[in-house]
Every structure is written in structure tokens, then in C-alpha cells.
Design a protein that fits this description.
Strands 8, 9, 10, 11, 12, 13, 14, 15, 16, 17, 18, 19 and 20 form a 13-stranded antiparallel beta sheet that branches. The protein has a five-stranded antiparallel beta sheet with strand order 3-4-5-6-7, with no helix packed on it. It has a four-stranded antiparallel beta sheet with strand order 23-24-25-28, with no helix packed on it. It is 33% helix and 26% strand. It contains 18 helices and 28 strands. It folds into three domains: 215 residues, Alpha/alpha barrel (Glycosyltransferase), CATH 1.50.10; 124 residues, no CATH class; 358 residues, Beta-galactosidase, Chain A, domain 5 (Distorted Sandwich), CATH 2.70.98.
Length: 735
């Protein structure tokens, strides 16, 4: 028996059968994912005409042509995040994707050949790979091309689209090699090979299900699509649809916060687009009352001056121009024709080469953009929207201002222990700040580009945020699982021309302690000013040390109380839970009724934080950087208001923006606080704050009544008042 001859005949027979299968109608519809044949025809016409789309095409073509002139590099994986091989494989999937688009638009087979050659190189390499050598020892989701399988899933999401785009130019032999040696093994590795990740309701699972599901559409594997949608057992307990159910609130807020909302957005919108193009009967964009469209819009709302609010494990430089949201905005405009999305697209200044991108480009060329409406809103957290909320307050009275209040859920393992914290922004700058993540993304020298150890020891700890710390111990004792099971309660939220107010509480962050915070961004129309009113109540069953930090951006200008300052030697504020990373630089015990701390921000404006004190609150001034041998932490400033041996305390304060500092033109205006009086009282359900600022006296009433009896009448200084909503503001001089 001539065994080699029989094997050769069998190989030829297999190839013939496969070729016949390729000719069937199911396989003849490429591209069939995000970009369709109809899109291609429209785009080919558009690149022959002047406009944004043609310009984007020429720019991409010039870039890819430069890269194609260089040898193809598919290195053996070696490095973690930020290392050469890691970055090379990232560049490769983007190059394949871009070249695939250029092939469809130009019909120049050289682009398809480039993608083919790179895919064949990967098909030769991938079967030889074990788990990545730079993987974390205890990692349950190691990749092969990358140190974690998350990056492998991102690679597949892009690469399967590139393959779809050049499919029609490939020979049957190339298709067999690419699918059997590369794409199928990757898809099986990310699904059956890592069931815990694939079935997980988490952004890692989103990327994996998107990649495998799209591979199923391209390679005619409907079983893969079903598993991607419903989990490996097709039980519905996991998979893409379950992620849509559980990771977003009914308003479209993503449980892990804005940074991960924008990151997860790309697989969500990409796979959804593929589902809509292949199985329109699923009506994926109508799923759960249009949750994907809500998620895109919410992602935009979770930004200020082009950058996302940096809560949880967030890198502060990420903003609305990120490629994930570019795709999301293009899809949102295509689905809605809402001209506000064109305003965001104009700011992004990035036209993607797709059917959605073409529609955006043509609308911008025709001048159809209208200003996008940012608003004050409380985004309910959790799949039911009832696990607390992320509150955004905005005002345009004294410039573009935003306040973020966070009575939100834990946010899974990317969440921080910062219940009821807040941040404030004014004139395009962060004023009251949050640290975000302790990480140098993809900088290999800094812990391989991963989250730094200080992310756990400081950035996630409660003292790193602007909320109460009890006995120098973080909320939920720093236990993520406990935190995920306990969310704050949003008592109320209301916005009106008077301002915006919200109140929330939690009684599970510490055993036997209830934390309740009420924050308002108040418009003082007569003065054309805004102030932040902060009322934080702590009630406990026993006595505790209570700390309330405030992290600020800027240069300390003045305090109205004496400070004892360490000038020759520093010591850490504490020994653990983030306190050990804070240098104690000075301290003071205000005796005055009003304790003022003023600083100057780089926006050229002054900010004064005024506290109502009774001689019991000590102020501790800190600088970040203690116990940091590798200089991983930024040297940021804070002051901590501390009381000891208390079972009940109320922190009352006002943040007042004021004045201007202009060293270029050599003038300074209103460098000192204009707030001269601050008082607090309560009548029944109404909290009353009286202030005098710039010579004008105001009474601010916050109505905490049950919804059924929202209107409240009350007396103040022998005068009658009525609060018809949650927030009422009275200028007493004119009353």
C-alpha cells in the first residue's frame, strides 16, 4: 500500500470538499460583520469625492503603505504589557484590520496579500505556543500571544474582522491553514479553554464572547455564536446577553465605572453590529429597551472637558476621543440621527472607515452638528438600577462646572472602597480630586505595565478618597466580595435652576455605623456664583475616630488658623490602609467658628473650603509619597478633618470658587474668600444652611420629607418660607 499516495489523495479530496463548501451562499457574503457589502459600495464611492471620509481614507492608506514596506514581524511572545513583543502583536492586529479595510475600498489585492501573509505567519507560530512566559503565576486567564487572555480576545476581535474583509481574496488552501491552525484554535482556547473567563459577567468575558461569536459568523460556526450569546452550556447564565443584562443599569451605566465602560464598549457595539447584520431577527439594538444605545450616551455623559470621570481603577488621561467611543458615537448617530452626537464626533476628530463612519463624515461635511447636551443626572447602579447611583451635577452659571457624587455600588474587583465620595471640576480643571488607578499603562519598567502594588495599598483604600474613614480602616475592611454585596441607598436626587442636590446613606461600610451625606451644587444667581454645600452625618453605636479627607489640586495659599508644620523631618500619618503612604506635613486645631483652607488651582482660580467647627475638628495636612520605595505615587496634597471618641458627628462645609490669578498680566482679583457667615439648623424634615457671601445673605433649605409630602413650610428668623422641592434658595436681603 502506497501510504503517502493515499494521504495525498485524501488531502486533495478534503481540499475539494472544502472548496465546494466555500462556494455555498452562506460563505459567499463576506464581509459580513461590522462592515457589509452594501457599506463597501457606498464607501468606494465616497473615497472618490472630497470630504472627511476621503481624507480619512487617504490618511489611513498612507500610514498602512509605510508599514507594508517593512518586513512582517510575528515574534515569539516574551514580554508583558508595554514590552516589545506585546506591542508588536497589538500593532499587527491593527495593521491587519486596517489593511483589510483598504483592500475592500481600493480593491488592490496587495492589501489582502499582506493580511494573508501575516495570518499565515501567525498560523505557523500559534500551534507551537504554550501559555505566555510573562503570565502572572496565579493568573487564571493567561494568554498565549499575550500575558493575559484579555489581550488575546482583543486580538481576535480585530483579527477576525480583518479575515472577514480579505476572505474573498484567499485561496482554499490558505483558508484551511488560517482557520485550522490559527482562528479555530484561538476561538477554542478563549472559550472551551477558559470557561471561567468566557462565562464570566465581566469586561474580560465581553471581549472573549465578542471575538468567538464573530468568528462563528465568519467561519459558519453557529454553535460558537450560540455559546457566545448564552455561555458554553447555552444556559443563559453567562454570555453576551447576560452581560447586557447585568453589567449595565437600566439607564446604561456600566458597573465598573466610566473607564471600563468605554473599554468594554467596543466589543459590545462591534459584536452587536455583527449580530444585527447576520441575524436581524434578534433585534439586538432593541434588546432590554435599547440598552446599548443608552450605554453609548451614558459614556459621553460620564465625562468632563473631554475626559472621563476617574473613579475606580481609572487612568485619568482617557477621554471621549478614545477609539472605543469613536465607534460607539458613529453607531449611535447611525441609529438615531441625533445631531448632538455629531458634536462629539467633531471633538473626537476621528472618522472610522465603516458604514457608520461614512454617515457621520457626510453629516459633518453638511454642517448638521448641534451642541451635545450634558445634563445633571443620577445614573442608577446595578442591573436593576437600585444599587445606589453615580450622580453628576452640572452648572453653567459661573463657567462650566461639574460635581461627581458617588453613592454607587462597589464595581467588582476594579472598584474602590469610597462610598459617598465626591469630586469637583471647574474651568476645565480638577479641583477636588480622586487619585484614580495607581498604574503606568504598558510601561514595562513599572511593574510590567500592570496595576502597581500601590493600587491595592493606597489608590483603592478609603483614605485616598473624599469620604469618611472610621478608625483608619477602609470601607468593608477592604474586602471586595463584601463590598459587592452592599451598596449605598440614594435617598433622593433633584435638579432645577436653583442647583442640584442629592442625598445618600450606607450602614454596611462599617459595622454599627451609618454614613449619610447630602451634597448640593447651588446656584447663587444674584452673585453669578456657585458653591458646593456638603453635609456629612456619622452616627455610630460606639465611639470612634472619624476622618474626612479632602484631596485637592493646587497650591495651598492660606488657612485662617495656626498650623504646626514639620519642616525638617516627616513621618507617615499611619501604618496601614493607605495611611502609611501619607506624609504628615502639618496640623492645626481651629478654634474659630469657621475654619478656612484656600488653594490656587492651575486654572488661575482660588478655592476656599470653609468648615463649621466647634474646636473639636483637627486638620491634618498631608502629602502622598511615604513608604513608596519605587516612586510609584504622585505627590498629591490633602487635608484630613479628624475627630476622636465620637459616636455621632456632622461635618459641615462649603466649597467656594472665587477670584482670579493672572501672573502673565500681573493682576490678582478676589484672592480671599468672600464667605463671612455660615450656620446650620434643622426644622423637622428641612435642613437649613444660612450663609453670607460677598455681602449677600442666603438661606438654603434642603427638604428631606417623604415624597408624598414634599412641600414643607417653615419659619426662619420670624419669617415664613416654603420649600416646594428638595432644594430651595432664598436671598434674605431681598426677602
Amino acid at each position: 500500500m502506497n501510504t503517502p499516495f493515499l494521504l495525498q489523495k485524501l488531502k486533495l479530496l478534503t481540499l475539494t470538499i472544502f472548496t465546494l463548501l466555500l462556494s455555498c451562499s452562506v460563505q459567499a457574503s463576506h464581509p459580513n460583520l461590522v462592515i457589509t457589502q452594501s457599506d463597501v459600495l457606498d464607501m468606494r464611492k465616497a473615497i472618490t469625492e472630497q470630504g472627511r471620509f476621503a481624507s480619512a481614507y487617504e490618511k489611513l492608506k498612507a500610514n498602512v503603505d509605510l508599514q507594508m514596506a517593512l518586513p512582517i514581524e510575528v515574534p515569539i511572545p516574551k514580554d508583558g504589557g508595554g514590552g516589545y513583543t506585546h506591542e508588536r502583536h497589538k500593532k499587527n492586529y491593527q495593521l491587519m484590520y486596517d489593511a483589510g479595510i483598504l483592500f475592500q475600498l481600493s480593491q488592490d489585492k496587495a492589501y489582502a496579500d499582506y493580511v494573508r501573509d501575516m495570518l499565515l505567519a501567525y498560523a505557523q507560530l500559534y500551534p507551537t505556543l504554550d501559555l505566555h512566559p510573562a503570565r502572572k503565576v496565579k493568573s487564571q486567564n493567561a494568554g498565549k500571544l499575550f500575558w493575559q487572555s484579555l489581550n488575546e480576545a482583543v486580538w481576535l476581535v480585530h483579527t477576525i474582522q480583518a479575515y472577514d474583509l480579505v476572505y474573498s481574496a484567499l485561496s482554499a488552501q490558505d483558508i484551511i491553514s488560517i482557520e485550522t491552525k490559527l482562528l479555530k484554535p484561538v476561538a477554542l482556547f478563549l472559550s472551551e479553554g477558559q470557561p471561567s473567563t468566557f462565562n464570566k459577567v465581566h469586561n474580560h468575558g465581553t471581549w472573549a464572547t465578542a471575538g468567538v461569536g464573530m468568528a462563528g459568523y465568519v467561519m459558519n460556526e453557529p454553535e460558537w455564536v450560540d455559546k457566545a450569546l448564552y455561555d458554553l452550556q447555552k444556559s443563559g447564565k453567562g454570555g453576551f446577553l447576560k452581560q447586557l443584562d447585568e453589567l449595565f443599569s437600566p439607564q446604561g451605566y456600566y458597573n465598573e465605572g466610566p473607564y471600563y465602560q468605554r473599554y468594554a464598549l467596543l466589543p459590545f457595539v462591534t459584536f452587536a453590529k455583527a449580530i444585527a447584520n447576520n441575524e436581524p431577527q434578534r433585534k439586538i439594538f432593541q434588546y432590554r429597551d435599547g440598552i446599548l444605545l443608552k450605554a453609548i450616551d451614558t459614556t459621553i455623559q460620564l465625562s468632563y472637558d473631554g475626559l472621563f470621570f476617574p473613579i475606580n481603577d481609572a487612568i485619568k488621561s482617557k477621554g471621549i476621543d478614545t477609539i472605543e467611543l469613536v465607534h460607539g458615537v458613529a453607531l449611535a448617530y447611525n441609529l438615531t440621527d441625533a445631531a448632538g452626537y455629531l458634536d462629539i464626533a467633531r471633538q473626537q476628530d476621528h472618522i472610522i472607515l465603516s458604514g457608520d463612519g461614512l454617515k457621520v463624515a457626510q453629516a459633518l461635511d453638511n454642517g448638521l452638528a448641534e451642541p451635545y447636551a450634558f445634563r445633571s443626572v443620577a445614573f442608577g447602579d446595578g442591573s436593576d438600577g437600585k444599587q445606589g447611583a453615580l450622580v453628576i451635577m452640572r452648572s453653567q452659571l459661573a463657567g462650566d462646572q461639574a460635581l461627581l457624587f458617588k453613592p454607587a455600588a462597589q464595581g467588582l474587583d476594579h472598584g474602590h472602597f469610597d462610598k459617598l465620595t465626591w469630586q469637583f471640576y471647574d474651568q476645565a480643571k480638577e479641583i477636588v480630586s480622586d487619585y484614580g488607578a495607581a498604574r503606568f499603562l504598558n510601561v514595562e519598567a513599572k511593574f510590567g505595565g500592570r496595576y502597581l502594588p500601590e493600587n491595592e495599598s493606597y489608590a483603592k483604600q478609603t483614605v485616598a478618597h473624599n469620604t469618611v474613614v472610621v478608625d483608619e480602616t477602609s470601607h468593608f475592611d477592604g474586602d471586595v466580595e463584601v463590598g459587592n454585596q452592599n451598596a449605598p441607598v440614594l435617598n433622593y436626587f433633584e435638579t432645577s435652576p436653583l442647583g442640584t442636590v442629592a442625598s445618600a446613606k450606607i450602614d454596611t461600610a462599617y459595622q454599627g455605623v451609618e454614613l449619610k451625606r447630602t451634597i448640593a451644587l447651588v446656584n447663587l444667581a444674584e452673585l453669578e456664583k456657585t458653591i458646593v454645600l456638603d453635609l456629612f452625618n456619622v452616627a455610630a453605636s460606639g465611639e470612634h475616630q472619624l476622618d474626612l479627607p479632602l484631596h485637592y489640586q493646587g497650591q495651598l495659599i492660606d488657612t485662617n488658623f495656626a498650623l504646626s508644620v514639620s519642616t525638617n523631618q516627616l513621618s507617615a500619618l499611619g501604618t496601614k490602609n493607605g495611611y502609611h503612604h501619607l506624609w504628615l506635613k502639618g496640623r492645626g486645631l481651629p478654634k474659630h467658628r469657621l475654619a478656612k483652607v484656600s488653594w490656587l488651582n492651575e486654572n488661575g482660580r482660588f478655592y476656599t473650603h470653609t468648615s463649621l467647627v466647634n474646636g473639636q475638628e483637627e486638620f491634618l495636612f498631608t502629602q502622598l509619597g511615604a513608604n513608596d520605595p519605587h516612586f510609584n505615587l504622585r505627590n498629591e496634597q490633602a487635608f484630613v478633618r479628624r475627630v476622636t471618641n465620637k459616636n455621632q458627628h456632622q461635618f459641615i462645609s462649603v466649597l467656594e470658587p472665587h477670584g482670579e490669578y493672572n501672573p502673565g498680566k500681573e493682576f490678582t482679583l478676589e484672592a480671599e474668600s468672600q464667605l463671612t457667615e455660615l450656620g446650620y439648623s434643622q426644622q423637622g424634615n428641612v435642613m437649613l444652611v444660612d450663609i453670607t457671601i460677598a455681602g449677600v445673605s442666603y438661606l438654603i433649605a434642603i427638604n428631606q420629607a417623604p415624597e408624598a409630602s414634599i412641600k414643607q413650610d417653615f419659619q426662619y428668623q420670624d419669617q415664613s418660607f416654603s420649600a416646594n422641592g428638595r432644594l430651595a434658595v432664598f436671598a434674605l436681603n431681598d426677602h
